[in-house]
Structures are given as C-alpha cells and as structure tokens.
Protein 1
Amino acid sequence: MPIGHAPLEAKAPDAGNIHWQRFSVSFEYPVAFSREIFSPDNPLLADAISRREQGKAHRCLIFIDAGVAATWPNLDSQIKTYFSVHAERMALVTSPVVVSGGEAVKNHLGEIQGMLDEIRCHGVDRHAYVIAIGGGAVLDAVGMAAAIGHRGVRLIRLPTTVLSQNDSGVGVKNAVNFQGLKNFIGTFAPPWAVLNDFDFLATLARRDRISGISEAVKVALIRDAAFFDWLESHADQLAVFDPRAEETMIRRSAELHMRQIAQGGDPFELGSSRPLDYGHWAAHKLEALTHHAVSHGEAVAIGIALDARYSVLAGLLPPGAEWRIVWLLRRLGMSLFHEQLLEIDDDGRPAILNGLREFQEHLGGELTVTLLGGIGQGVDVHTIDEHLVVEAIQWLREEAQRDAAA
C-alpha cells in the first residue's frame, strides 16, 4: 500500500448504475425437400432468394463440393441456365467455385481464407447470397466463411448427402477443425434457407449413403421411440435405398432435429447439455484417432452402440435394449467396432477417453453426456465411469469378433 494513503473500502455496486439491455431476435428459414432443384421450371431456389426483397436480381456466389462437381459434370451448366432463366431475380457474380470436399475442407484454415477472398473480390455483401452445395463438411466450412464475412452474409445450403440432409444441413452451427480438435473454430449462424434435392443421393457411394442413417438412429433414440420402431421395420428397405423409405427417413430425422433446435430451449448451446450429440463424444475422438479414415457417420454409429451398452452397464437402459440398437445398425450395414478404440495414450489410458475431456471443453461448464434411459428417451449424466467405458468397448470388440466368425 502506498505510504500516506488510507486503505480503500470495498463498495457495494450501486444498482442505479447498472443498465440491463434486453432484446430478442426472431429467426426463421425454410427447409424444403425437392428434386431437380436446378430444373428451370422449379422455382424453389429463386423463391428462396427473393422471399424478402422483390423486384431485383440478387447477387449470388456459389461454392460446390469437389466430389459433387466431379460426379455431376453438367451441374455448372445447369446452374448457369437456371440463373439465366430466372435473371430477373438472381445473378451469378462468377462461375461456381469448386472447393475441397470431405473433412479436408475443414482441416486447413487456408480453405476458409480462399472462400473469404472470393466473397471480398466479388463484392458479396449482406444483401447478397453465398450458396453452398455439398456434404456436411463443405456446408460447415462455407457456412463458417459466410458467417464471418461482413459479420454474416446470407447463406443458402443445398445438402447433397444423407447425413447433411437429415441432420447437419438443417442446424444453426458452422465450424472447422483446428490442430486436431473437431469443430474448434465456429459460429452459430442460422441459414437463409435449406433446400434438399433427393436426386443428389443417387450418386453417393454406398458407404456414405448408409453411414448417414446413423444420425437418424441417434435422434430416434433420444426423442422418438415410434420413429425408432419405424426404422427397425424398414431397415431392409433402407439398406437398399428404397426411395420412399429413404425420403421418409430423411424428412422425419430433419423434423426431429429442427424440433430440438427450436423447442429444446438452447439453440445456441449456452448451457452444457447437447442431446443431439448422443454418441458423439467418442465419435469425434475416433474420427481424429483414425485421421478421418472413419467418416463422421461411421463414427457416430460406433458411438451410438458404445453409449447404448454403457447405458445398460450404468443401470440406465433396460438390459436387452442395446441389442435392438445393435441389430438395427448392423442390419443397415454399419460396422460397430474399430481397432483404434483400443489405442493407449502416453499415460497408459485408452486414448478414446480423452474425447470426454475434449467434449466438456468444447462447451465448458460441467461434463454433460446424453445417454439412454429407454428407446426414445435421452437422459443427461455428469459423470462417466471409465471402467464401464472400457467394458463397453470390450463388449463391442467381442460382438464384432463373433459377427466376423459367423
């Protein structure tokens, strides 16, 4: 304390000097399902672009997943024809820009910088549109660039995979990876519109088309037992991509994800609970441990099975219910074990368990993991018994070995 100065007395805050700012912001955006979105006589995209301001040609910058561009070589010309037909309402600022597909687009910040360069160079402002065509990773990355350019330009998503149509495409999150951490850099930014074209699914690899169903299984398990029953009864049709079954699955899954986001009480994840991430604490870590050789949908299927067995071991889920879950996932054609689950870290612990710490750090607050109290009933817990996790992993391993020997 300085010599000659009396000690300062702590003063209670004066309530009269505290001014509370309160306001609410309403978000709304259409989620549509269609076919042949770029057919000139399909007005869906043009209507979405002009839904607020009429009588002008809105400027649009389009990014296309490299995998989609390669599979649909005529897509560029179809887009340009569509814009020509609807020129009174929309205009391309440049030819569609092809970006890396898959997790690669999320692993390098240079990809985001490249997108921001396109937004800047072509004068895309907050009344113009960025349109993302691709799988979930591309939607995440393009959405991230759109959200930070000018503090947010309008984003229209055109999901092209099962997983992005039934889950990630309808949400409000955008993110990329950083130094091996899944979705470390990101934003909450609701899109302007989500337009799903079922035709894109026809050219997906079987592996990707099947693994995308895992998110439908997940949301059924935590929120809708009747939907889980439907998935069970239609597993054979889903496994061979029967169009009616596949479209019903995607629509219902998207509806349940939308309901949770809108009515779950925490759309921007200000709390510690993330029910839509059931099975994901292990899935995200498994993706990283395999350097993304295991896709997100495949990892989620394994995470679902792992947490179902753990829920039984922890006394939350009635014994036998995990077999229904495993049967469904296997019937759909998903693998439920990977050797990387057995990797030991430098401290002698299963490396997969580090996913719990990273899961908690991602949100902050106390650890909150959604498990199962029944089919269609998610329950939050705040502690995880690592010994039971190891036991659940061994169970998955033994079941995989029995399945391989059968």
Note: The chain is about 45% helix and 15% strand.
Protein 2
Amino acid sequence: MQVGIERCSVVVPTVGRPSLDVLLDALAAAPGPRPAELVLVDDRPTGAPLQPDRPGLPPVRVVRTGGGGPARARNLGWRTARTEWIAFLDDDVVPDPDWYQRLAEDLAALPADVAGSQGRVRVPLPEGRRPTDWERGTAGLATSSWITADLAYRRAALATVGGFDERFPRAFREDSDLALRVMDTGARLTRGTRWITHPVRPVDRWVSLRVQAGNADDVLMRRLHGADWRERADAPLGRRPQHLAVTAAGVAALGLAAARRPRAAAVAALAWAAGTAEFAWARIAPGPRDRAEVTTMLATSTAIPPLATWHFVRGIVRHRRVRPWRGLPDLVLFDRDGTLVRDYPYNGDPALVTPVPGAREAVDALRARGVRVGVVSNQSGVARGLITRAQVDACMARLEELLGPFDTIQVCPHGPDDGCACRKPAPGMVKAACAELDVAPARCVVIGDIAADVDAAAAAGASSIMVPTPVTRKSEVAAAPRRAATLTDAVGAVLAGEW
C-alpha cells in the first residue's frame, strides 16, 4: 500500500536554539506536498512560547515537556500524533529542498516488516584547514546507524516497544537503544534516499569533558542488550580500555607514592604520562594544530581518562539492576463512580457529579505526557428504570466539564442478568475503547475501585490498578494484582512505568 506524506507527522524536539529557525525556514521553502503536521516539542523548563509561524509550513502544533530530555520530548511528540508514520528531525539539521518528496518515496510501499527508515546525513567540514577534534567527532554522524537526526518510524512500532527509553538522559544512545528494541520484535530498519545537512554546532573548549557522561549510558546499553550490543548497533568501542589503563596507572602512582615506594611510583607515573601523551597526540595530530586547539587538547586529554572512568564506574553502580523499558501506556481507562467521582448510586443529576480529590490533576498529568484517557462505566440504573440514558449522558458531559475531555467514553446500560458482553467484569467496554483508538489492549491500563474493573481489564488483556474505597470488599483488595491508596498514587505509578 502506498503511503502518502499526509500520513506522516514530523516531530522536532527543541530547546529553542537559533538553529531551529534555519530548520523551519528549510521546511517552509521546500516544494511538494506537506506532511499531516509538524509537532514542535519545547523541552525547555521555562521560556517564552515558541513562534514557529511562517508561510509554507505544514500545520504546526507546539507541546511542552517542562524539561525532560530528548527521549521524553520525542515520546511526547509521537504520542500526541495520530498518523501512521512519525518522522523525527533534530532541531540543528537542514533538510535538502527535496526532503518532503524523498521522504514520501522512502516510505511508499514499504513492506509491513519494515518499521523505520533512516535518512542520510552529511556533515560539512571547514575548507582550507584540518577539522578540529569536535568537528571530526560530529562528522561521525554521517556514518552512524539509526540516529534520530532524521529517522521515520511507524507509530505502531513505537507503541509496541514503549518509545524511547527515558532512562537515557542525553542525546546519546537513546536512538540506538530504540532501534535494537524495535529490531528485537522481528522488524527491519532501512536507509532511505533523503538527505539532511548536520552543521557542526558551536561549542566551548570543554565540551569533550561533558560528553564523557555517555560512558554511564554505555553501561545501561550493555545491561539492556548484552555484551554484543555494539556490534548490533554499529557502535565502536572507542578508547575506553586505554582510558581505564591510564587512570589505573595514575591511581597506582599516587598510591605507591603514599606507600613510600618511589621507584614503583615512578614507573606507574611514567606509564600514566606516556598514555596521556599518546592520547593527546592522537587528538592533536589530525587537527589544525593551532595554539587554541593544541592547548585545549593537552588540557582535556589529561582530564578525559579519569573522567571517562568515573562515569563508567558510576554507570556500573547506578545500573546494577535494570528492567526492560516498558514506557507509558497508550491509554488509561478510568471507572467513573467511586474512582473519578464520589459514588452516588444510580446518579442521574449532573449537579451531584463531584470529583475525588486530585482527579483533575491526575488526568491532566496523563494528558501532559501524551497518554490518552477514557471512561468505562457500568450504568445498570438505565436497565432498572431508575435513570435514563439521557441523564447518564448529561452526567458524563458534566464530568468532562470538570475533568477535561476524554478520548473515549464507554457506557454499559445493561443489568447484571442481561448477559451482555460490555458490562464489567466482561471485557467489552475495554476492548471497544481500545478498538476505537487503535490501541493494543496490552498497552492499556484500567484504574477502578472494585474487582469488576480489574477482571474486565484482565479479560481484555489490559493491565489494572485498584484504588479501593471503604466499601471495596477486602477479598477483592487482596486479590488485586496492583493497588494504590489514591487516584493520584495510581496515576503516579503509571507515569513511573509501574503498570
């Protein structure tokens, strides 16, 4: 089946760098059909709203994370999009003029087992002189695999694996981790024909020290994907073994000196100095060798080995035990009476719809992270003749006035003896909500106050969290697989990935 570009959303996480304007200008000027929308994810903790409006852009939507890092920003972007494909671009790249056309061609008629298509990257280096150490490092993006500077994924593939692992706090390894998890499902990733230019971003002279924090992320990659993760992700080892050896020599020299063993200390110090000098020359030799570059390389080459080792050890300690990333659910369904609002039996009066403490904040917290929300409610009062369906609908409308709009509302008007497939603990309403929103039940959580809510979730293949009330039977509470004291706690557990 052909995939038109109108079935694709473009997601750009940004921290408001000036390069964003260059990217937006390129997207506005490019010819050809536009994607369904451009989602700008503002990852700044604070700041004035972005002003992306300019003629020629696709429909633009701006969402904010409040500051959470690139993985969380990309997750919010794709979760709020509703198209079949999600194309990620970094905010410091410049797409070629034919990028829209090439993207459409890259995605057209891809077989179902292809979950992603990577664009091609060029990194312009200065003419007339050798590149600096930072420029050479950036140039490595041109040959890197599965980087989200330009990578389009099927939305369904992202949902299946829970998106980007937000335990990767930097723009480093989070894209490789995602690619490996997607390929672990049996899907394939391909390379397309579209191109972007990735300019070398201006940095200060100490940037090479800050990037050493990525050594901790490499530990997480090994914990998650095994010892062969580098081969699978096409990620070279680099100089970590040498950094460990140089650091060990330096520590040994200090220890031996403190132990008053001067000859052994001198040998260790000589090994440290030789290793440090070799590292510095390896960085200086291919570069411009001007005074600024040489002094920077000498200073940072002394600090990098122990700093890299420190972050590596920090990663070992921090990531002693890790679980596979599950991410956030795609949908959270709430029981109404006793869970979202106080339970007035067979209520048909909108004036009595009273949210429980923290209900609005809890539901809004899910919306803010791109998780869709819905209601699944038994209303047997209709079958019993105690209330009308119009009264039920009026109460639901009042609920949305108080708590904001829900993506789906499912109501069962039948009685306990009607034998319907929708009344909880039957799974009908949960399945119907998932089908309406094209969500796999395994990516859905049901939050309710009684066993019927928990059992409906289990029967549908969804997860559940029980929030008991004083009238919930103790046997039901004991049998629930997951429990929370309050609605706020239940939603907090969902947002923490504990579902």
Note: The domain at 5-202 is CATH 3.90.550.10 (Spore Coat Polysaccharide Biosynthesis Protein SpsA; Chain A).
